[in-house]
Amino acid sequence: MPCLNEAETIETCVKKARRWLDQNGVEGEVLVADDGSTDGSQQLAESAGARVIPVSTKGYGAALIAGIRSARGKYVIMGDADDSYDFSNLGLFIEKLRAGYELVMGNRFRGGISPGAMPPLHKYLGNPVLTTIGRILFHSECRDFHCGLRGFDREAILGLDLRTTGMEFASEMVVKATLHKLKICEVPTTLAKDGRSRPPHLRSWRDGWRHLRFLLMYSPRWLFFLPGIAAILLGLLLGVLVLPGPFLIGGIRLDIHSLLFASALIVIGYQSVIFAVFTKTFAIEQKLLPPDPAFQVPFKYITLETGLFFGFMLLIFGGILSASALFQWGRQSFGTLDPEVTMRLFIPGLTGVILGVQTIFSSFFLSILGLNRH
Q1: Alpha-carbon dihedral of residues 304, 306, 311, 316, nearest 10 degrees?
Q2: What is the Rg, in whole angstroms, of the alpha carbon atoms belonging to the chain?
Q3: Which of 101, 295, 299, 337 is 20 to 30 Å apart from 51, CA to CA?
Q4: Could you tell me the pTM of the whole model?
């Protein structure tokens, strides 16, 4: 149980958990990870039968990580110390863990949420939206990403190398367990109104953003790659339409200004795809994400040298088009030119130069990121 100034409820939580262990013949301990309580929560927890460990780093995730590392059991059940979760009814968690599941998630929407236990903002917007995003981004089967009551195999979870120290720890555990293909299931659990008279530590918008930020940062495909591909395809389509000459759509005339916009889409999309490759490479090297065999396949063929080759080819292509535009200007004695003609050479030429330079620099940077791998 993570704890920060929970004097009003910590005894009740510890006694419920202790009683459940004794009544069901489960050999275990109640461990309280306290990250700096000043209201005597530590003494109250110990007197109720818990082992208390001090945690120097502040934060929900920091307390839980320290508690998991200090736990002595094969299985760990974590839950908040605010008396909102039912520690007297943990049978389903133990049953699933003993059946071989490595992460057993509680689902409050299946088990029941008491009136006033969850703010409407969390119940109808925050939890459903963030859970849906997590399910889409990571193909997770979990339907309550943020349930604070969950059980797991201690060694399996420690093997995930969880790092976040705040409320987003709840998402990190589910995401990494899914990516590492742990055996995961859900069981119904209840949520009661907590027994505290003070406001909760959770800050809706701040912590909601931290969860969303984490989900996006752990999915470079959705954050960078897919938007980048979409921008490139849209830019190419628009460019093909207006490159030969003005193009009419429903009475709207698209011309060189649209060609410039198409060029910008291609450059932005290409940069976004490069960011996706950088992020994925760094995350795998730093063990933030598990190795991805499909991601490694292209690197058998895409080396620094091939990247430099294609970069210089783009640079040469762009240089030729730019030189052609300059040659036409020279034929007019560097006087006034028709922009509708010259810009159709200059814009693709400059785009090629930009993409070529990006490719060359990115090839070197990607090789630096992959030095440990090599």
Answers
A1: 140
A2: 28
A3: 101
A4: 0.82
Tell me which of 170, 195, 217 is where a domain ends.
217
Q: Which domain holds residue 235?
A: 220-369
State the burial class of residue 338 (Cβ atoms within 10 Å of its Cβ: 0-12, 13-18, 19+).
exposed
- Could you tell me the end-to-end alpha-carbon distance of the chain, in angstroms, rounded to an integer? 43
Pair (193, 44) in one structural domain: yes
* Among candidate residues 320, 315, 308, 317, the one with its CA nearest the CA of residue 354: 315
Cα 219 to the chain's mean position, in Å?
Answer: 5
Mean pLDDT of the chain: 91
pLDDT in tens, 258-297: 999 999 999 999 999 999 999 998 888 888 888 888 887 8
H helix intervals, the chain:
10-23, 41-47, 60-70, 91-98, 108-111, 120-121, 127-138, 154-158, 169-179, 204-217, 220, 226-242, 256-285, 293-296, 304-331, 339-369
State the total domains in the chain. Answer: 2
